[in-house]
Each structure stands twice: as structure tokens, then as C-alpha cells.
Amino acid sequence: MPSDGTPLELSHKTVPLGTGPPTKEELLVYYPAKFTWHQLKTFVNSGDLGLLKRDKKLQQRYDVWAKGMRAQYGSIVNYLMYKRLRWGEPDTQSLLSSALDGVTTERTAGIEGPPQFDPQNPPSLPPLPANAPAYFTADTPPELISIILNDWPYSVPPQIEHTLVWTRVPIFHTAIIHPSVEKRVHQDGLWGFTGTPKDSPPPSPSTLPECLPALQEWNVTLDKMIISPKGTKEEEELVRRAGAEVNEFVKSRWNEREWETAWFVNPPRLQSVPGLAHVHVFARNKSPEEITRGEY
Fold this sequence. Notes:
Blueprint: H1 24-30, H2 37-45, H3 56-73, H4 76-84, E1 145-149, E2 160-167, H5 179-188, E3 190-194, H6 208-211, H7 233-242, H8 244-253, E4 259-265, E5 277-285, H9 288-293
Antiparallel strand pairs: 1-2, 2-5, 3-4, 4-5
């Protein structure tokens, strides 16, 4: 920042390109959003969560970083379990920030740190308590959850926060997924919307063709999509129930009066870290005018 207190204009000259997880400034300058909020919601509601993408150049940067983490920790799961995630504690390691952060949250300078981990002899996590739920619920104990901003966010607009809700208990479970929709859920995943303005409901999947040009560099076409046919009214309700606990959790954390969200749980075929259950949440902080109207 110049001596007169005015912020520097963000550009390739003022923002150095680093390695590892990017800063907010790097995301704005080097990896600008490829998708609008409307397009993101359309992709989530399309039935194929594989449409949600990370910037290709950021993906390359991630791949290099991930190789180093695997060498140091043995696997990305180990890195997350024993380094990145802090069960029941605020996230102080992220280089990004959330409007939900407390003003006193103290952040570390980075999230790498010196090697302190023997991949051949990983430390033991505390055992799950005897009263731990069999699957993720809206009131899952905080010590079984770690909520962090995605260090490697998908290509979302600057005003959209991409948060990950990690949990030590499964999200997909036979107790909440009826056998008649089990195959569908395991192919398509789960998703939902909260805090949706009355005058702007989730986009219909039928409008997807209008958004496909934004996915041109990934060579996405309708014929390449993996989508289950629409089920009966009863089947659609069973799928909704399978995601009901996640939906209630999202509403409890992102107050619907102040936030609009699109959340999803990737199916196994799309999970980059299959060893750990987690929910993706795209969250938009509503404007003061929207909050005053209180229509959702």
C-alpha cells in the first residue's frame, strides 16, 4: 500500500505469482473467475457436479503442490488429517478470509510449515466418542468437524466464498439413503440451495445449454454429461431426504437472511479425497438491501 494509504491497483506488477495455495490477490490477478454466480448455480442444479471446475492453470499449480505434500505426508489424506484440518477449532491456516471469520482470528503466515510428519508412522487421531453419530447430521458435535475455506477454490466470482465442511463421520449412509435411490446418489451426489431470494430461484436444469459456452475450454458438451433421468415424485423426495441433514447444517451456519448458498457433496466418482467426507459450500453474502427486504 502506498504511503498515502490508498490501495495498490492489483496487477501482474503489484502481485507476485507464488507457489502453493494462492492468496486472494493471486486469484484475482492470475486466475480470474470463469463462471458467474448464476452459472455456478446452474451447474450445481444440472445433475452433473462434474461441471464444476477449477481454473486450469490453478489446477496445474495444485498438482505440483500436491506432489510435494504426498512426498512429505505420504498422501493428501494424511496431510489433511494431521496438518491442515483442526477438528472443532477455527481455521487459522488459510491464506483466504471469510465474512464469517471473527475479527480476532489470528492466522498463521502459511499452511506448509517444516516437515514434522513421518508418513511411515502417522500419529493416531483421537477415537470417535461413543456417542458419535453414525452419519453426518445437522447437530454433529463440533469436534468431529473442520470447516475451512478451500485453499484451492473452484473458479468462483470474487464475492463467492468456497468453503469445505470436513467431517470424521460419513455423509453417505444406508440409514438415510433409501435402496431405491442408492445407485443414483452414488452416481450424482447430493446438492441443495439455501437463502435463495424469492425473485431468483435456483436455475432450472433446462437452462444449462445457455451456460455451456463457459465450459468450452474443458470441452464439455451435453452428450458427455453424466446425469440420472428424473425420478418419480417419491424418488425425488427420497433424494431430498438423503441431503436433508446437510441442508439443515448449512442453514444453521450460513444464516439464510444474510447468505445465499449452493452446497453439494460430490459422488465417489468425483471425490478428489475419497478418504474423507466433506461438503462443498458456495456462499454469497447478501447485500444490505437484500437483508433489509428479508425475502427468501
